[in-house]
## 1
Amino acid sequence: MKKILLNILAVILGLFIGGFVNMSIINISGSIIPPPNGIDITTEEGLKAAIPLFEPKHFLFPFLAHAIGTLVGAFITALIAKTYRKILALVIGLAFLIGGIMMVFMVPSPTWFTLTDLILAYIPMAFLGYSFAFKLKK
């Protein structure tokens, strides 16, 4: 019973911490790579209006936020979990992937970014997070 509770806690913490990392990176992105002049990206409507004006550099931090958030969340989960570490880390990747797919429908983006993000930022990063935790736990 204790293992099950720790596994549940690991997933909850992985989702929370990974989401926090994701949002932190998104929040600082505008100060590092400013959006086009006169654009408000703090609202969904403003972001939708801004997407056609974005250059490839504006997509760097969203990708990093998704990838690093997933990596950290999966790492934390695999580090804390007592059993099924790889599966639970991949559950984190799947949860973040579902969020990424939802964002594609809410805020359309260029096809190249959508494919790059959905293919590279979630499941591979979850596996990498698991791998880092596995090596650390050895």
Note: Helices lie at 2-32, 44-50, 60-80, 85-106, 111-120, 123-137.
## 2
Amino acid sequence: MIDEAVLDFAPGSLMLLNAILAVVMFSIAIDLRLRDFQVLLQAPRALIAGLVSQFLVLPALTFLMVLALQPRASVALGLMLVAACPGGNISNFITYRAGGNAALSVSMTAIATVAAIVMTPLNIAFWGSLYPPSAAILRVTHIDPVQVAITVGFMLVLPLVLGVALNTYRPQVAARLRRPLQWLSMGIFVAFIVIALAANWAQFLAYAGAIAGLVILHNALAMAGGYATATVARLSPYDRRAVTIETGIQNSGLGLVLIFGFFGGLGGMAVVAAFWGIWHAISGIALAAVWGRTEARR
């Protein structure tokens, strides 16, 4: 049964995944300068709408979906954990291809990453405890929110600070590193996930079919929630595209780190995060192909 299944992931592999995600975050951060945050603070409505969509609307929609469909405990907790993560690293590229506000997307990723130190463990603990089957897993695992915060901080926030500092004080170096580092980090990340899944391929295939529909529905809810939040906030279509994609592209790599680091590689959770990592790229690129045909009003 999927709630008892455990995927094999060596401690050394987990450390390597942490390092890869840090490099990915650094490659995003060297696009940012301190003044980018200052501009957003002067006109914060789009940023606030994006963070509300990311950390309040999506977890709430996820909980309602879990209540309605009653999935297995580990699958439900996997969906909640993915919803609690900040935006994924490919959201900036997809927003650009969709003709949305890429600068807003990059800043949302950065600020959501910092906020994730508090919001990710808080959302996992809060929403997970409201669904009795997933609450039972949380009681057994005794997840420590402080340790989750430390993991997020070292893996995501430290590279973010270093990247912003490099782009602010050594922009020529950042400019030379930016494009090759982004492609290299993404290639390494995808290759690592493929290799990690290969070691558990039989289990992944055994459970992926049952989970695929839930992940596709969950991702659609995330996109719809982002679009609805941006519409209610009366954002321009240009900003609305960024908020929609940022909400629908989750940092499933961080989700995998947390699952293997704190939940022992619990099968349902790991398959959810792994399938999310595949599907959100497909849905995001498809949405970008549709939106990219027309220019968004700013």
Note: The chain has a mean pLDDT of 82.
## 3
Amino acid sequence: MGEETELKLTKFLNKKPLFYKEIDYDRMPKCWNEIKDNFNLPKKIVHIIGTNGKGSTGRFLAFYLYKMGFNVGHYISPHIMKFNERIWINGKDTNDKILEKTHQELQQLIPKYYLDRLSYFEYTTLLAMKCFENFDYVVLEAGLGGEYDATSVFDRYMTLVTPIDIDHQSFLGSTIEEIATTKLNSIRTNAIIGKQIHPEVMQIASHYPSFSQFLNENELNQIQNFIRSNNFPSYLADNLALALSFIKRENLGFNLKYLKGIELKGRLQKIDKNLYIDVGHNPLAARVILNEFKNQKINLVYNTYKDKDYEEILSILKPIINKLLIIDVKNDRIADKNEVIKTAKKLEIKTEEFKKLENYLTLVFGSFSVVEKFLRDYEK
């Protein structure tokens, strides 16, 4: 597809701010109520909520269903390199032609009042659901929270809950109880609760129509072997177990051959000798990384958003950091570089600005924006 066609959607989205200090929680439900009769929703929507692991859990599930022969869509956010990554259709990121055609349809369907006011994520969610019309399954990843998320306006068949931890406190609450309640309030029919690190989550989940996972010991062992044999980070075993719990509950069997060839971008992904990238950005992600690199030292190419508790994140990672390398990222949400450096020095972590890769085990970490900036420079 030519550049001109691609730019029509891009130009429209570029007028919308990616992030808001306040969110209008009524806007998306009201808009959806006005336009929903013009959509042919997928047969079964699987909603994925939680703090970490939504993207990999969703991709395991979507890939498995697609390989079984179903018509499958997977909606994720944000993207690393290109917008098309957000809308995955039957094994591939969607193409510009489909995006542009669907964008033009939406322009005709949505009243101008809402076209002007819908957020970037709200509009993108509607775009995805138009792309996924009449599919057998759609795996829909929540953006922020659960109850008031744009993805929660659709009737869902099942909710999968990945680990819930402290994050996005300004929107979701300051305690695990508040955050878990906000997220779990999005459950409508049934839910499968993945492995949790906070017992409070399971207590709150008991008030909803939810199940623990459906796998036996032999199946869990098969998952561990699959993760090891594919050189995936060990934490992905829990995410795969959650995805396959849904498969079993659907009576679709259990056969890991359907996952042959799956790729998980940005999830402790090894992209070169001694070089890994990870799009994580919160304390839970930091604890996972600490475990994956235990008894090793790494150079950490890092930056972070100003609303993240980077002192806690760096405190968690300190035992494995050889050197902290701060990468410049142009983004309104990125923290003041000098404040991050000051915090690292307070923690007695050797810190300098990132200039080039050294011949040393290195992880690029901190957010999708950090990984994107690194990869764009790295590819040059």
Note: Residues 54-67 form the longest helix (14 residues).
## 4
Amino acid sequence: MLFISLDFAIFLPLVFLLYWFLNSNLKFQNLLIVVASYVFYGWWDWHFLSLIFFSTIVDYIVGIRMSHVEKTSSRKYLLYVSIFVNIGFLAFFKYYNFFLDSFIASFSVFGLNINASSLKIVLPVGISFYTFQTLSYTIDVYKRKLKPTTNFIAFAAFVSYFPQLVAGPIERATHLLPQFYSKRIFDYKKAVDGTRQILWGLFKKIVIADNCADLANIVFNNSDDVYGSSLLLGAIFFAFQIYGDFSGYSDISIGTSRLFGFNLMQNFAFPYFSRDIAEFWRRWHISLSTWFRDYVYIPLGGSRVNRNLAIRNTVIIFLVSGFWHGANWTFLFWGMLNAIYFIPLLLSGRNRNNLGVVADGKTLPNLKELFQMFITFGLTVFAWIFFRAENLTQSLDIITTIFSKSIFQFNGFDFSGTSVTPKKMILLLFLFVLIEWNARTHKHALEYFGSKWPKVMRYALYYLIIFSLVWFGGEKQQFIYFQF
């Protein structure tokens, strides 16, 4: 079920009303969340509900068993069971064909032909997200950071919680699971702010991301026939497509959770205003970045080791991040490129220079900050080319064309099939960036305007956004991160 579908527009109010009708019974509220979450996910393909249920059963039992054993080796064995089951499912559905094809290709270099056929595997939506979420539970129980739960319904609700089930944020068990133990009280102000965040998320998805997608797809799908200037513009459109799409989903997820009395972590903190790549990764897909930091990077030693090991750890964390996104060499190259960006900051000790908000307390950034943001955004857009391209060959061809003389030439490329022309999209992006810039110290843009503007102006803005959803709403696009 898509957040931007009519189905969800009917589903959400019904669940919301029934949920608060059951306000006096926490167990029934949690049970309703489980049922609603399974309906939400099963609306796409009910066959894969068995994967979620099986992971839930395994990790619930593993957690309880850990509470009955003290021997480290036994606890580690139980942890390995959880990791094997969860990563095993993920590896099979997401990476089986990739490893098989790579294996065959490696032998073909030596003139050896291996006959093996790929499987027609359907990737379960959200498997990368809920797998990491449930793993956070068993890892934290193993590390004794969290007591194992005996409340199966609460745990099942934590694993399958529908607002963030298929595309995050990837919540930690230490943060979200305890919220299922406590009685939720309806908070009108929190619900209103949640509705604002949903509205802004819809704007980012439908008006910004989907229209940028139309333009970017035309450019990338015809990359052999366009000049460098058009390819650069297409890369910029994709940069805003993936940001509007993914952060828009996170806004809808977080806002929906606030309607039900839950607090999810912020997943995006205006990353395109970052002054270096280290700051960018502290602000982009925060739930995944911090997951890899806490469960992979720090256990490897982090940066508190010698220089060579620090470089190794950095490369590993970015390669794993790239591979998490998909079974394609382009994602690995994208991860490696970001590691190359990051390592000079790490070695010079400047990776934590920009911890605050850019130009905090000021209307505009100074020239240095403006230059830093421009360079960081440029490096990010360059890396996104590998992320978007079908393969490394197309990536390199696009980059070669961008850095050719044709960057100064403009060909009349046909964008007649799109809802918004490139010129109108550039104007929309300018207004979008202006709004986000003014709200950069808040959790989301409408939180800022909802607290600063008079009531008449606020509602005028809300209706303007609703109008733009109808007026600029192009062809409905699938959320990008559903494929991951």
Note: Residues 72-108 form the longest helix (37 residues).
